[in-house]
């Protein structure tokens, strides 16, 4: 029969491009997996570093505060033995107290008057309105109170006030033993731990107030960060862990690791800016994305070449060039007209009827 040869190659083209699309999709999915793995690795590695820093800083703070507490207990006992006659100047003369750490050790009587101190040229001072005195009046908690840094009236310098209640033998309130600690002692140590302009190391009270903090190269104390996520974690009973949040002080997003200081209402916290942590990760991501983009382009070019090979093979087998088929002009003028490949190739390839048409060998 003399019937026109009609061949629709659109399904073949669709199959080829679906295969190419699947390869490209797989490539980008693999890149996404690698990026997520890189992100998790960067964060977990930094978390471990912050954990180590927190442990070091917490151990330093705990030992220092435990030493201070021992001095307070000693003064408690001495005051119960000697009462108002206690002379702390003799204690200072032994050289056992480092004034660079412990600015003074003293006694505040039941009326709130500082009546004894290791400070030289000491003068009595009224401290009856200070929180570190008032907190002990109602009851004996047998705990050390650790104030936020305040300007000392006796010493004239900023200090963290540690106090313990003195309970007389009859159970009545006899005053408090007080030790004034220099916050610079902590910040000097933390400055050696912090790396970069956005790194952070701090010791906070459970009240949310910084006892000492280093933020990059800046040193401060007294900042209130009660709204930080860490305090909801502490209040929920989680005394150690990590989290990411934007700082309530400077707005910088950081990865934090914190640890409560055993025996005291304090916590140690270390932080590093997320953008610094991800610097190397972002560079690696950019390289992966570039590789995926190049691979996608190569897949498209390879599939386009394969498509042309298939079309030319069909044309060759049926002698399309010799029979004036509709698609022949697009094929003959390749590659100048390869931009019209999709339009030309998806049409019906129609050839004039020839009797006994057979493909070439």
Present the secondary structure layout:
Elements: E1 5-8, H1 10-82, H2 89-93, E2 102-109, E3 113-117, E4 125-126, H3 131-134, E5 145-146, E6 150-151, E7 158-167, E8 173-181, H4 183-191, E9 200-205, E10 210-215, E11 218-220, H5 229-235, E12 240-246, E13 253-261, E14 266-273, H6 274-277, H7 279-317, H8 320-323, H9 328-332, H10 341-345, E15 348-351
Helix pairs in contact: 1-7
Describe the structure.
This protein is of the alpha+beta class and 361 residues long. The protein has 3 domains: 5-38 and 279-351, no CATH class; 87-181, PAS domain (Beta-Lactamase); 195-276, Beta-Lactamase. The protein has 10 helices and 15 strands. The strands form 3 sheets. Strands 2, 3, 4, 5, 6, 7 and 8 form a 7-stranded antiparallel beta sheet that branches. Strands 11-10-9-14-13-12 form a 6-stranded antiparallel beta sheet. The protein has a two-stranded antiparallel sheet with strand order 1-15. The longest helix is centred in the N-terminal third of the chain and has 73 residues, at 10-82. The relative contact order is 0.14.
